Amino acid sequence: MTGNERIPFESQFKTTEIFKRESAIRQNNILAFSETMNSYFNIVTNDAWQLWNKAKAQPVPNQILNEIQAWIAKESFMSYEAFDGLFVVGANEIAEFIEQLVKSEPGAEG
């Protein structure tokens, strides 16, 4: 993995509670990276990095992407009308919808 591939991971990771908590506990740069080992020195950061790469390696079928986009569009317009011109779709609603889609996939657990 190149440094360019770490940029989106680090940007996203910095927004998490895990990053904030680990940074406060360690009080050092938890994003220090070893190019030769292709891993972060901090074990929590490295675990997140490994999960990020595993998730990135699994393609999302176009059908699921299309269903998610259609659902968000529908919910956005419904909330736009209900909330006086504001597009309001809750993150929990989106997560629940995605979870339902994933569970409906062939071979899905749960």
Describe this structure in words.
The mean pLDDT is 78. Helix 4 runs antiparallel to helix 5. The protein has two domains: 3-57, no CATH class; 62-103, no CATH class. Helix content is 64%, strand content 4%. With 110 residues, it is mostly helical.
Summarize the structure.
With 110 residues, the protein is mainly α. The protein is built from five helices and two strands, in the order H-H-E-E-H-H-H.
Per-chain topology:
Elements: H1 3-13, H2 17-26, E1 33-34, E2 39-40, H3 43-57, H4 62-82, H5 91-103
Antiparallel strand pairs: 1-2
Helix pairs in contact: 4-5
Core attributes:
about 110 residues, mainly alpha, 2 domains, two-stranded antiparallel ribbon, 5 helices, 2 strands, about 65% helix, elongated
Strand % is: under 5%
Q: pLDDT under 50 segments (min length 5)?
A: none
Number of domains: 2
Q: What is the N-to-C succession of helices and strands?
A: HHEEHHH
Please tell me how large the radius of gyration is: 18 Å
Q: Give the overall form.
A: elongated
